[in-house]
Amino acid sequence: GSYKQALQFANSRENWIRTKLANHLPEIILNYGSMLLYQGQELIIKPSQDKHITKTEREIFISGPESSISGKIKGYLKTKARDHLNYSSRKYSKKLGKQFKKITLRDTKSRWGSCTSDGNLMYSWRLIMAPPSVQAYVAAHEVCHLVEMNHSDAFWRQVAAIYPNYKKQREWLRHQGSHLHRYQFKR
């Protein structure tokens, strides 16, 4: 085929290509001195004597041996993700005048969130590593499924009504989202 056809084909398969390329990027193992992405900002992991995880604008402090860091950070991130996504989901469901039943968190590779027909929301806890605006967009997106259980034009109009700048956040996920899966956390 022509160069133009090849480019069109590559553009039509952009998400798949990005996912495959991301799978070939090196894993990020968390140790003291490593960088952790949190709310879209890189934090350096530093040792602490305090039993509680504390965070500043540029650092996150964790106690214990390096072998326990990833498990502690995973627990911390999941707690923060639940708080932030619960807040955003409530905010956007109130705008729609709809209620959801419950929120669950998972470590999904293929989707950032979902909404069941009976009103349950599911999110990837890794969203806490994305910028807050991206987290808000995903919450608004999923809450809109309480009204439209599809991705029709009516659905996207609903998303635009409660989160007008959604396209920028959607693009961030498309281009940067796979980076969040490079971080390795022990179970």
What features would you describe in this structure?
With 187 residues, this protein is α/β, with parallel strands linked by helices. Helix content is 43%, strand content 17%. It has a four-stranded mixed β-sheet with strand order 2-3-5-4, covered by helices on one side. 28% of the residues are buried.
What descriptive keywords fit this protein?
alpha/beta; 4-stranded mixed beta sheet; 6 helices
Mean pLDDT: 93
- From the alpha carbons, calculate the radius of gyration and give it in angstroms: 18 Å
Q: Which sheet architecture does the biggest sheet show?
A: 4 strands, mixed
Can you give the helix content as a percent range? 40-55%
H-E string: HHEEEEEHEEEHHHE
Shape: globular
Topology (SSEs and partners):
Layout (H helix, E strand, L loop, with lengths): L2 H10 L1 H9 L5 E2 L5 E4 L2 E7 L6 E2 L3 E4 L6 H28 L6 E4 L6 E3 L5 E4 L7 H13 L8 H10 L3 H11 L6 E2 L3
Parallel strand pairs: 1-9, 3-5, 6-8
Antiparallel strand pairs: 2-3, 4-5, 7-8
Helix pairs in contact: 3-4, 4-6
Q: Could you write a compact summary of the structure shown?
A:
With 187 residues, this protein is α/β, with parallel strands linked by helices.
